[in-house]
Amino acid sequence: MLIHLHNISKIYKAGDVEVPALINLTMKVEHGEFVAIIGQSGSGKTTLLDILGCLSHPTSGEYWLDGENVHELPDAQITTIRNKKIGFIFQTFHLLPRKTALENVQLPLMYARVPHATQHDRASELLTMVGLTDRLYHYSNQLSGGQQQRVAIARALANRPALLLADEPTGNLDSKSGNDILNVFDQLHQQGQTIIMITHDPLIAKRAERCITLSDGKIVSNQMTHPSSKILV
Amino acid sequence: MILAIIHDAFKNLSANLLRSGLTMLGVIIGVASVIAMIAIVEGGQVWLVSSIERLGTNLLFVWKKRLTVEERRMFAGRNIKLKYEDALAIRQHFPNLTIAPKVGFDGQLKIGDRDFSGHISGTSPEYSEIRNFFPSAGRFVTTEDLRGWRRSVVLGKTVAEVLFGTESPIGKEVKIFGGVKKMKTKDITKVEKQEQEIVEEYRFVVIGVMEPKGEIYGQNRDEMIFIPVTTALRFFKGNDKIDSMVIHVPDRNSMEKVTQKLHQFLVQRHDGVDDIRIRNQGDFLGAVEQTLWTFRIVLGGIALVALLVGGIGIMNIMLVTVTERTREIGLRKAIGARRNDILLQFLIESTTISVIGGVLGIILGIVTAYGFGNLVAQAMPGGGDWGAVVEPTAILIAFTFAVGVGILFGLFPAMKAAKLDPAEALRYQ
Ligand SMILES: Nc1ncnc2c1ncn2[C@@H]1O[C@H](COP(=O)(O)OP(=O)(O)O)[C@@H](O)[C@H]1O
Ligand SMILES: [Mg+2]
Predict the structure, then answer these.
(1) A91/B contact by beta carbon, under 8 A
(2) Burial (Cβ within 10 Å: 0-12, 13-18, ≥19) of residue B354
(3) Beta carbons of A215 and A44 less than 8 angstroms apart
C-alpha cells in the first residue's frame, strides 16, 4: 500500500471562525492506482491533496506514505519526500516566470543535487516525452496553457516520484489541451505510475480507475469506474 | 551542488533586470550621497585651512577693543587706545617678534583723469614678509620711508592697472585725497575753539606694485594700497592711533604664552585698562572648524536622509515583489527546496545587488565630489582649489550601511516566506 490516511482532519482558522475542511477522513491507495477525487467547490479536495503532497499539515490524524508516518518526520525529511517521492501538478501551472521550460524542469533535479549535465539530459528527455522537444528554450510566457501544463508534468516527474498529484490539471485549459494532458496521464498510468487527480468534472473522473467523491470534508462515495465509459469521452 | 543554487540566483538577477536595477538604485543613491557629501565637506575644510594659512603663518592679530560709552567715560584721561608707540615699544621689548602696525582710511588716488577709490593702509616694511605678500615690481615701503614720512605708495595689481594701464607706474606721481583729519585749531583771536574737518590732498610717488594675489577670505588683495604708517598718521590722521598690529611669532608652540605676555604688556602701557584684543590664527581656524562642524552636521543629516531614502527604496521594491516572491518560494519548497536552499538563494541575490550597487555608488559618489570640487574651483577667482577629500572611513560606513540594508531587506521577506507551509506560500495573496 502506498497511501494510508487515517482519521485525517484539517481545520482552518480564519480569525475567530474555525472552518473544518476535512473531517475524520480515512482512505487507502495502492501502488499503480489511478484515482480521481471529485466533489463540489469547497468540499475539501485541494486541502486533501495538499496533505497528500506534504504541502500542509493536517490538524489531526495520521498519514502513512510508503510505510512512513509522514507528519511525524522532521522538516528536512518531509522536504526530501516532496522532492523525491511526490510530483505535484497545479491548476495554475505555477511555472517560474522568466525561466525556460528546461530550467523549470531542472529545478527539482537541482534541489535533489543531481549533477548539472544529468539535469539537462533528464529534463530534455522528459520534455520530449510530453511532446515539447522543440520548446526546450522557450520561456514560460511564450508557451500556451496546454504547453505550460505539460512542462509542469515534466517537472513533476523529474525525480521519478512514487506519487503524482494533480489538482484540477485541466481546469484552466480548453478541452483539446485538456484531453492531451489526460492522454499523458493515461500513458503514465499504463507505465505503472500512481496518480491521484482532482476534478469536478465526472466525465474526466471516469478516465481514472477509481473515483472518490468528497462532500463537506467527508468521503461520500468510493467506487471503481466502469472501464467501458472511457469510450464516451 | 550549492554552486547550482548560486548559479540559479545569478540567473534570477539577470532575468529580473528591472527589479534588480531598482533595488540597486536605492543602494547607489545612499552610498553616493554620503560619500559625495563627506568628500565635499572635507575638501572645503582643506581649502579653508589652506587659504587661511596663505595669509601667513604663526600670526597674532592685535586690535583695539571697542569701549562702551560708559567705559570711555570711566577711563577718560587714561592712556588708552592702540598707538604707534605701542608697536615700537613691543618691538623693543620683544626683539624676536616681527611687528607690522596698520592704520587705514578710505581715499582716492588720482592721476590725470583716472582715479581709483579704495582703502589705503599705512604700515611698516615688516608687513610684506609677515603676510607673505610681496611686490612684483619696485619695492615695498622701507624703514627710510617711515623715518622720513615719505610720501611713497605701493599699489595693488588692480589699482596699478586702473591708474596706469599697461604703463609701468614705478616712479610716477599720484595724488591721494583722503583721511579725515580732525584738527583742533585755535582761532587767531583765541576767543573760541573750533573743530575743523579737513580732507587732505598730497602728491605721492609710486615705489612698487604688488604681486597678484586674488581674493582671500573676503578681501581682494589686488585692490590694496600701502603707504608708510608714519606718513599715514602724520598727513591723514593727525594723531598717533593705529587700528591694529600683525605680529609674527617664530615659535608656533609659544603662541599662547606670547599672547599672554603681550596682553599684559599692553594693558600695563594703557594704565591698567584692558582695551585690546589679541587673536591668533588658531582662533580663526577654530571658528572655521566650528562652521565646518555645522556644515558637516547639516550635510551629514542630508546624507543620512538619502541613505534612509535609499533603504526605503530597497524595502519598497522588496515589498512590491513580496507576493510574487512568496509564491516563488512556495513553489520551490513544493518541488523540494530546503529552507537553507531558499535562504542561500535570496542571500546571494540581495548581496549581489547590494554590493554591485554599493560599488557603483562609491564610483558615483567620488565622481560627484570631484565634479563639484572642479565646479567650485572654476567659480572662485584667484584659484580656490576645492579638492574633494574622499575619506576611506566615509566609504566604509556608507558601503556597509547601504549594503547591510540591502541584504537585510532582501533576506527578510524570504525568511518569512520560507517559514510558511508550501501550500500557504503558493496561494499567498
Ligand atoms: N487557507 C484557508 N483558510 C481558511 N479556509 C480555507 C483555506 N483554504 C481552504 N479553506 C476552506 O476550506 C474548505 C475547503 O477548501 P478546498 O480544499 O480549497 O476546497 P476545493 O478544493 O474542494 O474547492 C472551503 O470551505 C474553503 O473555504
Ligand atoms: Mg480546489
Answers:
(1) no
(2) buried
(3) no
Q: Could you tell me if the CB of A45 is within 6 A of ligand 1?
A: yes
**Site to substitute for ligand 1 among A13, A18, A19, A55, most atoms within 8 A of C-beta:** A19
CA–CA dist A154, A102 (Å, integer)? 9
Domain ranges, residue A172:
3-229
Q: What tens digit of pLDDT does each residue of B31-50 get?
A: 998 888 888 888 877 777 77
* A42 touches ligand 1 (CB under 6 Å): yes
A197-219 pLDDT, tens digit each: 999 899 999 999 999 999 999 99
CATH of the domain at A217: 3.40.50.300
Domain assignments of chain B as residue spans, ordered by start: 2-53+286-426, 66-97+249-274, 99-244
**Cross-chain residue pair A82–B422, CB shorter than 8 Å:** yes
Helix (H/G/I), strand (E/B), else coil: A207: coil
ipTM of the complex: 0.95
What is the nearest CA distance from B14 to chain A, expressed in angstroms?
10
Pocket test of ligand 1: the residue of A41, A46, A56 to mutate, having most ligand atoms within 8 Å of its CB, is A46
Going by pLDDT thresholds of 50, 70 and 90, the confidence category of residue A12 is very high
